[in-house]
Write the structure tokens for this entry.
Amino acid sequence: MAPEGSFPPAQRRLRLGVVGGGEGAFIGEVHAGGARLSNRWEIVAGALSSDPARAAASGRAWHLDPERSYADFRTMARAEGRREDGIEAVAITVPNHLHAEVATVFMEEGIDVISDKPLTSTLAEAEELAEVYRRTAVVYGVTYCYSAHVMARQAREMVRAGLLGELRQIHVEFLQEWAMDLTDATDPVPWRLDPARSGPSFTVGDIGTHAEHLARFITGREVEAVRADLHCAGAPKQLEDTAFVQVRWRGGVPGTLLVSQAFAGAQGGLRIRLSGSEAGLEWCQEEPEFLHFRPVGEPARTLQRGEGAGMLPEAVRRLRVPRGHPEAFSDAWANLYREMALAVEARRRGKRLVEGEVDFPTFEDGLAGMRFVDAVLRSQEEGGWVGLGGGGSSSSG
């Protein structure tokens, strides 16, 4: 297992509130599960649905104090911001078009934010939100969860250590089948295909931002330009369900980003392949325990998650169980919530974290994702290559 003291011990569990994602909602349960498994948070408040009856029922199911089970997130922000025992962070799990509004009201109360991706529904909205974020100076995590897998951290450290040599190609894909037959009329979560609520993109804004972030996180390279081709490869719908994107990464490194939610036989196929002058590297989140390292002119090696046997310290310190006891999606979420808890605790105690102590996706990563989505959509509309404005951090620093 990870060495004793890999992360500073918690002074206490931090108080977490949740907006959206009540009983029966997948993403809300995932957030709650990650927070609980991290052993760094206690969920004490929520506005778990915009429907008052469902919000109350979800609050009871989550064993919330009825006084802290709210029917409206604005009321929750004001009330929790004024309590001595108020929440210290809020997890935002509502539809995309509400991300900015919910985050703003909590930031204005000095409450730290943990938001589902994408950051907002449009780039313009994200840039407006950036002004509030920088003025309030809260901790703002964005749940690009796949980067919290131990072997994704191992891949990043191997790139940083130069084990691949000069990086020459970056390819990432995320393929699913669940939206093959989905239409505007049959979607059980209607906001996903409604541009007014999801934003102008369906698949690129959803799993495309996960793929972009994972590649940027592992390689440390930002996207410089894209050339995109968007499709509706499944049942007819207003927004794309498939995207083929040529990518030019910082330093002129070429690559591709392929995403589809209408690819038959695929479930959670997030895969990254890197090619360097000395070796290739491959990781797939459906087999998260293993990382494939292929040095040029040498036998291929498969690294298994655990201590020793080629594992680097920054990956080892994030282990949750020994090798042979599989870790999974829920463990990645727990890693994410643990690191965000450390940042929230440090801000509230007026302390600075040691550089590199945590490495979770931040507001700037979410903003970089929105710039990527915007560039892809402009490339589809205009044709040809489109450059990305601004820059994005690849870590929480």
Summary: The longest helix spans residues 329-348. The chain has eleven helices and 14 strands. The first strand starts at residue 14 and ends at 19.
